[in-house]
Amino acid sequence: MAVRSLWAVRRRGQRMLAWSAAWESRGWLHPFSTATQRTAGEDCSSEDPPDELGPSLAERALRIKAVKLEKEVQDLTVRYQRAIADCENIKRRTQRCVEDAKIFGIQSFCKDLVEVADILEKTTECISKESEPGDQKLLLEKVFRGLSLLEAKLKSVFAKHGLEKLTPIGDKYDPHEHELICHVPAGVGVQPGTVALVRQDGYKLHGRTIRLARVEVAVESQRRL
């Protein structure tokens, strides 16, 4: 009985040695060897890194991203402040230009009117100094020449600055250019509904009516008001 037991143990030992030799001949590690256990341990350690490494990298990435966002916010804030300052400067310059245009917009027109005033002043001085008390004819001639020169200069100034005198006699009545004073009976050759008489001249500035002409409009005799 003891011989059989020893023989069975021997057979199992020989069988284990045969298996080990077969594994080693094929380059495999024995499942119960220390090398196999060490390799398995290394694999586990490579697949499962320490828990402290993951959160550290995540925090570092978040910090870098936060720094970048903070820098972008600062840049945008500076750009916004510069844009606001530029808008304020443009607004002030525009307001100054508008104020200057209101004050000095008629500077050229006033300069030309000064020349008209000079003519009127010189004519008055000439009449008062050179005319004798009894020479009325000479006085009237000087007044006429001075007024004629004054009228010519005024017309030149008006034309230069786009100021046009309205002469609507014979034109059809237009409420946008004429101010109706009264109706008069249409005479010979005068069409009803047209301007028969101008009481006060009108004016246009660059095509825009700035003063209506005060007129009398012709109508048929039975419609006279």
Automatic annotation (TrEMBL):
It is found in: Mitochondrion matrix. One of its GO terms (molecular function) is adenyl-nucleotide exchange factor activity. One of its GO terms (biological process) is protein folding. InterPro entries: GrpE, GrpE_CC, GrpE_head. The keyword Chaperone applies. Keywords: Acetylation, Chaperone, Coiled coil, Mitochondrion, Transit peptide. It comes from the Eukaryota. Probable component of the PAM complex at least composed of a mitochondrial HSP70 protein, GRPEL1 or GRPEL2, TIMM44, TIMM16/PAM16 and TIMM14/DNAJC19. Essential component of the PAM complex, a complex required for the translocation of transit peptide-containing proteins from the inner membrane into the mitochondrial matrix in an ATP-dependent manner. Seems to control the nucleotide-dependent binding of mitochondrial HSP70 to substrate proteins. Stimulates ATPase activity of mt-HSP70. May also serve to modulate the interconversion of oligomeric (inactive) and monomeric (active) forms of mt-HSP70. Belongs to the GrpE family. This is GrpE protein homolog. It comes from Otolemur garnettii (Small-eared galago).
